[in-house]
Amino acid sequence: MANHPPFHEVSVYIEQDGTSKYRIQSDKLQEIGTQLRGRREFSIFHSIVLPLFVSVATIVFSSVFQYISWSNSVGVKYATDVAEKAERTYENSAAAIGTRHYATLVFLPSLRDLIHAKANIAALRAMAQSNEVNDRNPLRAQANAQRRNPDAERSLAVAMARRNGAKRRGVVQARADATKRTPDIEHPHIRVMAHTSGDDEISLHKSVLDINQKRFASYYEQLKLWNENYDHQLSDIEYALDRPVFGQIDKNNSDFRIYRSKIAQIDCLNSLTEELQKQNLNPHSLKVRFAVIHNCFMVINNALGKQLNEAISNPVPALDKDTEATINEKLVGLLAMASEFRCYAHQRIDYYNRQKELAIFSPTYVRRWLTDATNAEALKHFEDAASRCAPTRNADVARAAPTSSSNN
How far apart are the first and last CA of the chain? Predict the structure, then answer.
């Protein structure tokens, strides 16, 4: 009994209120309740630990969800930026290649026309000087006058007038008409027809000359723009198209270096992929492919410049058929190289676009992160691109490529 709390006398009034209700009245009900429940002890777990645990768990889970949301936004934004920059860089590169290829393609027939025109003018001048010398000899003049073919003289005069311009044409045509003049020539209608025909020939000659001048200007303008933007374009291709995927397989910087000594040995007439493999260059690097295309353009430019210099310095120039055929073949080879470049670039852009979905947090994302599947996917991308962009797939494109003869 010593351990029990002391007794207290209380007065309790109990009244029946109905059949199943009772009313209890006392001024000590609170003390009675305390005695019946026992003394209340302070609980650290329920008062501190449990509320603290619930608060920490709430903060952690909300932070985790916020981090996942932020990570998804950042990942998708990065993947989108990579894909958009890659596509923009490819469009600029492909446009530069196509524009310069066309300018080179139409420059070759213009150069051929220039060389042929200069050679024809030289031949006409030689014939005119020879006839002048013969006409100075009185004994030969009469014999030459008897053997002279009026139609041939008229053709020679018209050809000389077409090459030398409208002013010289009037003088030469007059001399040709004086050689063989018939009464019909004096008829007004025939004079009008002859004058109209001459104007048409001059107009056609001027039109051809204007086209050739525009092609010359276009070629050297494209050459200037290409040389000014080449280094910048090369850098953009490396950082926008190559580095993101090569970073996923931990490739070092050696894959992006431009070995000019090796590139100079590449044959522009063969498949670009095969030539890169022969020189131990990375065929998956679009930067290397663009550098090879640049080298082939320079080879063609050197050949065209050599022909142009010979045409300027040589009194009677001539365009070697073998040289012209070789340049045309290299232009066709360049078209095949550009086709391979576009194919690899399209595969690369598609790969970057697929990275947008994979950047979202999901069970697949966790599995790829734990198993290093990103590396395997990058390697598979290289294999798929090599298979889909094989040279045999682009052979028909090269065969169907136009040559400079079709643009003449």
Answer: 127
Hunting for tokens 């998804």 — which residue is that? Answer: 72
Give pLDDT tens digits for 300-326: 999 888 888 887 777 777 777 888 888
Please give the full DSSP string across 297-351, using - where no structure is assigned: HHHHHHHHHHHHHHHHH-SS----HHHHHHHHHHHHHHHHHHHHHHHHHHHHHHH
What are the residues whose beta carbons fall under 8 Å from the beta carbon of 221, sequence distance 6 or more?
103
Sign of CA dihedral 103, 108, 111, 113: negative
Q: In 38-186, which ranges are continuous DSSP H helix?
A: 44, 50-136, 138-147, 150-164, 166-179
Tokens 């490739």 belong to which residue?
251
Token pair, residue 325, equals: 């055929």
Domain range summary for the chain, segments of one domain joined by +: 82-407
- Tokens read off for 264: 């100079």
Whole-angstrom distance, CA of residue 261 vs CA of residue 367: 44
pLDDT tens by residue, 220-260 = 999 999 999 999 999 999 999 999 999 888 765 666 788 88
With 0.85 as the threshold, say if the pTM is over it: no
pLDDT on residue 359: 80
d(CA 33, CA 13): 16
pLDDT tens digits for 202-211?
A: 677 778 778 8
Distance of alpha carbon 122 from alpha carbon 83, whole angstroms = 59
Work out the average pLDDT over 213-225.
89
User: Rounded to 5 degrees, what are φ and ψ at 15?
Assistant: -125, 140
pLDDT tens sequence across 338-358: 999 999 999 999 999 998 888
- Count other C-beta atoms under 10 Å from residue 65's C-beta: 10
CB contact at 8 A, 300 and 255: no
Instruction: Give percent helix, percent strand, percent coil of the chain, each to the nearest 5.
Output: 80, 0, 20
Rounded Cα distance between 232 and 297, Å, is 17
Residues whose CB is less than 8 angstroms from the CB of residue 161 and which lie 6 or more positions away in sequence, other chains included: 168, 169, 170, 172, 173, 198, 201, 202
Instruction: Please give the Cα distance from 28 to 12 (Å, whole number).
Output: 8
Are residues 346 and 408 in contact, defined by beta-carbon separation less than 8 angstroms?
A: no
- Nearest CA to 100 out of 285, 227, 214 is that of 227
For residue 146, the model assigns a pLDDT of 45
